[in-house]
Amino acid sequence: MSPWLTVVGIGEDGFSGLGKNARRALLNAAQVFGSQRQLDLLPACIRAERLTWPSPFSLAPVLALRGQPVCVLASGDPMLFGVGASLARVVENAEMHVLPSPSSSSLAAARLGWALQDVTTLSVVARPVAALNAHLHSGARLLVLSNDGSSPATVAALLRERGFGPSRISVLEHLGGSAERRVEASADDWNDPPIAALNLIAIECIASANA
């Protein structure tokens, strides 16, 4: 079967930030799946039926349209903890195109001046923050994909509990968009400021003297 599914990585800059192939795929699609936030980034010229993901999340609505021109929107790079990786497990590679945008990890590393090859990228999206424990050691640099606006406070609490209170936390909101913002503090000094739901947590691990 020829490709019928296109997974489009879209950033906070929306449709204007997409390449020619991604725009063409969206213009030619019969259905477009994504979160409401992602679908709202599309202009009126996209005439496809816009479909939000079911709750609980399922790929079944996409797979039911096999053979039709379908687009799926993902944040940044769809293959980095994204829906593209999930689809690749159930859709043959020959049936699917993946068109990535810069990942939030790449954008965060660029903002912070961190070399990506020296950074560990993790996700706490629908995962316990305890997944960070195995990666906590002095000098480690972590990029953590947040579940929501409460994730930074939860991560800061974990760092304090594990003896990494001096660690530097940078929370980067809406990377690549007009609302981009950075909030910084140590885990010890994190006072739970209001944080946007769309954020990434950068951690420079520093152990306390008595850790």
Kindly provide the name of the CATH class of the largest domain.
Alpha Beta
CATH topology of the largest domain: Methyltransferase, Cobalt-precorrin-4 Transmethylase, Domain 2
| Overall shape | elongated
- Given helix and strand content, the structural type is alpha/beta
Any idea what the CATH architecture of the largest domain is? 2-Layer Sandwich
Radius of gyration: 19 Å
Written account of the structure:
The chain has 2 domains: 5-101, Cobalt-precorrin-4 Transmethylase, domain 1; 105-205, Methyltransferase, Cobalt-precorrin-4 Transmethylase, Domain 2, CATH 3.30.950.10. The model has no long low-confidence stretch (mean pLDDT 96). By secondary structure, the chain is an alpha/beta fold. Helix content is 20%, strand content 24%. The strands form 2 sheets. A 5-stranded parallel β-sheet has the order 3-2-4-1-5. A 5-stranded mixed β-sheet has the order 6-7-10-8-9, sandwiched between helices. It has 6 helices and 10 strands; from the N terminus they run βαβαβαβαβαββαβββ. The relative contact order is 0.15. The chain is elongated.
